[in-house]
Write the structure tokens for this entry.
Amino acid sequence: GAGVSQSPSNKVTEKGKDVELRCDPISGHTALYWYRQRLGQGLEFLIYFQGNSAPDKSGLPSDRFSAERTGESVSTLTIQRTQQEDSAVYLCASRGTGWIQDTQYFGPGTRLTVL
Amino acid sequence: QQPVQSPQAVILREGEDAVINCSSSKALYSVHWYRQKHGEAPVFLMILLKGGEQKGHEKISASFNEKKQQSSLYLTASQLSYSGTYFCGTENYGGATNKLIFGTGTLLAVQP
């Protein structure tokens, strides 16, 4: 079926505004992950969902960041009162059975620029 | 906790071989390798499991040394299409969240 999709692909916002990023996982994938990738840097884990619960939120950098997921479907990552250091590509990944033998499949990402 | 990759960058000519290493300070259950081209999402290459099982595709192989807590990715007879940044993602024992912690990345440039 279709891969992981994310929207918007690009978002430019002004400092202090709120933004909402969306992720549509591969159909049937129970696990969903959000990562942040700053320019030229590695992949920084933000949050993990199993179904619609989030057992691991350890990577969220501050209380300005939050995420939710509806069932085993769409997830949204919300950043409130954006700061310039929030500028990055936000990647979403989903995973099939959740068994350790499976891997994560990434979406194309949302490039966020905070002016 | 973040795995360390080496080298940080490597430049090859087409047809040459390369090895990329990924080392963790924690006991590993599995290692996942990805390649990311500029401006694109990471693409899955290979997964290595405890016990040495390899699952992947393309003409790329890898090893997993549980004792040394490290994995190596072998790229033989490199092609221009191999260029990109390679990341390892590690899963630790007791990883109930099945979360991957990604390494620092290795930039590979293959030249004609």
